[in-house]
Design brief:
Helix content is 20%, strand content 42%. With 163 residues, the chain is α+β, with helices and mostly antiparallel strands. The strands form 3 sheets. Strands 3, 4, 7, 10 and 11 form a 5-stranded antiparallel sheet that branches. A 4-stranded antiparallel sheet has the order 2-1-5-6, with no helix packed on it. The protein has a two-stranded antiparallel ribbon with strand order 8-9.
């Protein structure tokens, strides 16, 4: 389930649970926001494309924070003319978490936080861990490994124990 919304002159592909940064909105952190300019909706059954917007489709979100982006330096210079101009800019943004996508009376809500945490805990990226972290992970989960083994052998031992 996903939708394409338009806000701040830009288009974003969103799903339930996504956290995205959009152009600054005039709302405080913690408030609810509704995006009604929904251009495309895929509800799992089919793709609905609006002309230009899908009728009756909305995307509900919660504002996480308001902030400023990284600094962009603008430097103008003309050779041999003693002209230099340095200017900086930080673009304001609003970070929102997509809660639900509603279309045609159906509301598709984001999964609960507990489900997301359990899902992430189940998917541990062993290859991204360092050898010391792998040994610690094995000790926490009571998996017997040879600590003097190579990293690839430790990963294989942990994967075999998890199955």
């Amino acid at each position: 389930m996903y939708a394409v919304i338009e806000t701040g002159g830009k288009q974003y592909r969103v799903q339930q649970g996504d956290v995205i940064s959009v152009e600054k909105l005039g709302v405080e952190a913690g408030e609810k926001v509704t995006f009604d300019k929904v251009l495309v909706v895929n509800d799992g059954e089919g793709l609905t494309v609006g002309t230009p917007c899908v009728e009756g489709a909305t995307v509900g979100a919660t504002v996480v924070e308001n902030g400023k982006g990284k600094k962009v330096v603008i430097f103008k210079y003309k050779a041999k003319k003693d002209y230099r101009k340095k200017q900086g800019h930080r673009q304001p943004y609003t970070m929102v978490k997509i809660d639900e996508i509603a279309v045609g009376g159906k509301v598709f809500a984001a999964p609960a936080v507990e489900e997301v945490v359990e899902e992430k805990a189940a998917k541990v990226n062993l290859k991204a861990m360092k050898k010391a972290e792998l040994i610690e992970y094995a000790k926490e989960n009571n998996i017997e490994i040879n600590e003097k083994a190579v990293k690839d052998e430790i990963i294989a031992a942990i994967e075999a124990a998890d199955k």
